Amino acid sequence: FSRLKSGLSKTRDSFSKGLDNLVHGKAQVGPEMMDEIEEALLIADAGMGATRKILDALKREVSENHLRTQEEVQAHLKTIMAGLLQEHQTPWDLNSKKPFIVLVIGINGSGKTTTIGKLAGKWSKEGKKVLVAAGDTFRAAAIEQLQMWSERANVPCIAQKKGADPSAVAYDAVQAGIARKSDIVLIDTAGRLQTNTNLMEELKKVKRVIGKVQPDAPHETILVLDGSIGQNSISQARLFHEALHIDSLVMTKLDGTAKGGILFNIVQEMKLPVRYIGVGEKAEDLQEFQPEAFVNALFE
Ligand code: GDP
């Protein structure tokens, strides 16, 4: 929790500064306090939809439960905020398939490769047999970077030369995962310009080819988003979802922004589970997303 807290410090500082009346008990429970909460949520990029929903629920609870103190309002607000983040969360049973095949997509720089590296390390430490695949064949550096992560995590990495067909890499990876009885296969992909239709076609082909080797796979297609780009992450998510159908999200770089409220916005808009959030560059800074802890870190 302390890493989560320090990772979210920019958002917390900005958010709690905006909540002077609520947090520091400077005003009575009433419209002024509600306006302040609304503004703080909007400044944190929680978005109109989520902010409305939170405020409506809070106002209802204030009147129904006759909340009189700041402490009561704050407790209810936290529960409502966590509830909104929880709405589309689903359990993630990695043991439900063997191998469990995860396709990781997102634009360059969003944090795909590091996310794969960190997850491979974490799961391998937990005793799972992990295999990674360097599917971003567009950039030599991406292949090398993943190979470096895989060595550090001591897991095999399926790779071909720069310029190779990414679906051939994915094909090899799934076959290798089955042959080696891996528990989890993590497949990296290219991410040049999300508007590039070639990229979407390439990713569709990767998905199709994976399904040819293992008919119900990929078992999860994860979109990695850079949390520091704020509202733009929503249009990005829509583009990927329309073309490829995403199952879940990872949001990185929340340590670099005061707009960490974007999580409320993206959950409200995309109605998808968030698996992990990134709050720093270290391996332990990629944290399983827990709505209640996230909300607590914004207040404490
Ligand atoms: P890719 O192009 O999508 O594969 O992106 P990379 O995995 O190469 O990540 C791009 C950069 O973002 C790297 O320098 C990572 O260390 C950095 N990065 C990834 N996640 C986080 C995070 O949660 N916080 C911070 N501060 N940096 C991150």
Stretches where pLDDT is under 50 for at least 5 consecutive residues are none
Number of strands: 8
Radius of gyration: 21 Å
Q: Count the helices. How many?
A: 13
* Main sheet: strand order: 3-2-4-1-5-6-7-8
Largest sheet: 8 strands, mixed
Subcellular location: Cell membrane; Cytoplasm
Catalytic activity: GTP + H2O = GDP + phosphate + H(+)
Subunit structure: Part of the signal recognition particle protein translocation system, which is composed of SRP and FtsY.
EC number: 3.6.5.4
Key words describing this protein structure:
300 residues; alpha/beta; 8-stranded mixed sheet; binds guanosine-5'-diphosphate
How would you sum up this structure, described in words?
It is a single chain. This protein has 300 residues and is of the alpha/beta class. The chain has 13 helices and 8 strands. The chain has helices spanning 2-7, 9-18, 20-23, 31-43, 48-64, 70-86, 112-125, 140-153, 166-179, 197-213, 232-244, 262-270, 291-299; strands at residues 100-105, 130-133, 157-158, 184-187, 220-226, 248-252, 274-278, 286-288. An 8-stranded mixed β-sheet has the order 3-2-4-1-5-6-7-8, with helices on both faces. The longest helix is centred in the N-terminal third of the chain and has 17 residues, at 48-64. The radius of gyration is 21 Å and the shape is elongated. Bound molecules: guanosine-5'-diphosphate (GDP). The site of guanosine-5'-diphosphate has 18 residues, from helix 7.
